[in-house]
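Entry for the shared binder. Reason: the reviewer on the internal report wants the predicted structure included alongside the sequence.
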Amino acid sequence: MVVEMATITNDCLNLFIEKLQQEAKSNDYLNKLKEEDNYEDIKNALIPVNYNMIVTPKEIDDLIENMSSVVARGINFAL
């Protein structure tokens, strides 16, 4: 339901590297960077500047409202 900004950044970075690799074809640094898991490095870079946000889907308010209705009905039926 929620995703950390570091995860999104890591996925975007991998897509960007793939695009650069298609154009460059032979860059050892990009190959090495793509093979590594950069999540922790990205997270550590984002935390000091308070950019490590939690991202939720657009429809989170509707999902929570629907779930609260389901829980309320369950409690009402139980009592």
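Summary line for the report: Residues 3-78 form one domain.
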